[in-house]
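re the bet — no i am not wrong, look at it urself. input seq straight from the record:
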Amino acid sequence: MGGVGGEGRNAGVGGKGGVGGKGGVGRVGGVGRVGGVGGKISSPSSHTPHTLLSSFSPHTPHTPSSPHLPNMFLYLSKLLPLFFYPLGLACVSLVVALVTLWRQPRIAAIAITLALTLLVFCSNAWIAKSLVRSLEWQNLPLAEIPNAEAIVVLGGATKSAFPPRPTVDLSESGDRVIYAAQLYRQKKAPIIILSGGRIDWRGSGSPESGDMATILTSIGIPSQAIIQEPESLNTYQNAVNVRKILEARRIKQVLLITSAIHMPRSLKIFQRQGINVIPAPTDFLVSQGELQEIASTPKAAILNLLPDTDNLHQFTTALKEYIGSFVYRLRGWL
């Protein structure tokens, strides 16, 4: 997925599809895993300054309540929004129509109309791409990416190596991993911090940080340049755990890589943790060319009014970000 405004890719990195075989994933200089969201980091080496995570200075950002998320809250945070997304809300409306069809046909008719309106409205390109653009274009790529002390990559970009996959695959958001490799090879930062765990009830497998490390090492990034943070289960935990790594290594400024649609929420969460972040978005779903194509001809304009599953997916992804920002703000994470 190309970026906006000429965001380039280096020829030597390779595309999404044919990532090489699964290599050994190294960890830098003995940097220990983050022991849970609120755990301590083991001392990276004898040269790493000692840091007490339990006694921050007065300038350290406050972390609301315990960093541990109860499993039930995490599950509900994934489950409940499904009923507010277009497809889930349409299904609820159709169930209401089915129940009330014989005794209250007027209510059934209203419910069916609501379901149809939702699906048609949310799956046309005009609406979906406008909503996506409202998020993605808040942080356009810089003409020249500045140097930083580390590159931070958020999880959600890989599929674990379960059969019949021969190795770890990149998902739609896999541009995050490729872009991190490009910036590293451009010497924008000396280390790459990979943040992402694996939710138990979404299947077993290695943490997302491990999967990303496998891909990076397979395309030539040295394992010594990679630090894994394998405990985070959401964006808030990404920020909290990465902050601990940065404090342990006295890193002051980072390049943050995530999908462009996810960047507005991620940027605010990391800044809330007191991290000096330079946004480096990738994986743009909407470009200038695609916006121009919508109304390029009368025929195209009409076709883009019709329902399309890809447009529905994009609309839902953008709505998920807005709902996530609302919930995170209520919890004091933004």
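see?? The mean pLDDT is 82. told u. also The longest strand covers residues 150-154. so pay up
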